Amino acid sequence: MSIDTLMRCSAAGILALLLAGCVTTDDPRKGGFLSAVQNSVLTDGYKQREAREQAVLDRETDRQSALEQRAAAMRRQRSELNQEITTLQRQTGPLDGQLQSLRAQLATSRDTVKREKVELAIQRLQTVKTSLKSTDWQQQSIPEASSRLKEIKAMMQDVTDIAEAAR
């Protein structure tokens, strides 16, 4: 063995001892150059760190995807609520016309029960119309808006039933 080879082997051995004796971390930002060299050359530190970071990225990507799906579902629900509100608003006009016509027909009638039913239906229809207009639908949560809309639909059905009974 030549002196040159012996010197190279000794230098490599000393370097290995120095690297092994240093406090290391698998984060190259914290451990410095020697730590980075030791972890990338002598161990699988870099691959392990890369795998951990990839796992975090994958979890966050999955989380983002789930949130986007949830947001899309909420937009669909909000759109369906808006369509139901528009439908109810459109139904109030013809129903109001029918009730006013019934009111006119019964104005001279002696059937006070029917007249009272028509007046009650007109009052409830006005409540429905006011509720549809005054409720700030966009500010309410979807469950709150759905619940409120359910109440208004029930009132609207009552008005329709009363109108039918008064005919």
List the helices and strands and how they pair.
Elements: H1 3-21, H2 28-42, H3 45-106, H4 112-134, H5 142-166
Helix pairs in contact: 3-4, 3-5, 4-5
Coiled coil: 57-119
Protein name: RNase H-like nuclease (RuvC/YqgF family)
Organism: Azospirillum rugosum
Structure description:
This protein has 167 residues and is mainly alpha-helical. The protein folds into 2 domains: 3-60, no CATH class; 75-166. The protein is 86% helix and 0% strand. It has 5 helices and no strands. Helix 4 runs antiparallel to helix 5 (142-166). The longest helix is centred in the middle third of the chain and has 62 residues, at 45-106. The protein is rod-shaped, with a radius of gyration of 39 Å. The mean pLDDT is 81.
The succession of helices and strands, N to C, reads: HHHHH
**Biggest β-sheet description:** none
**Strand-residue proportion:** under 5%
Ranges where pLDDT stays below 50 over 5 or more residues in a row are none
Enumerate how many helices there are, as a single number. 5
Number of strands: 0
Number of domain modules: 2
N/C terminus separation: 118 Å
State the secondary-structure class: mainly alpha
- The helical percent reads over 70%
Average pLDDT metric: 81
Shape descriptor reads: rod-shaped
Radius of gyration: 39 Å
Give the oligomer, counting copies of the same chain as homo and different chains as hetero. single chain
Summarize the structure.
The chain has 167 residues and is mainly alpha-helical. The protein has five helices and no strands.
Describe this protein with a few key phrases:
RNase H-like nuclease (RuvC/YqgF family); single chain; mainly alpha; coiled coil; 167 residues; 2 domains
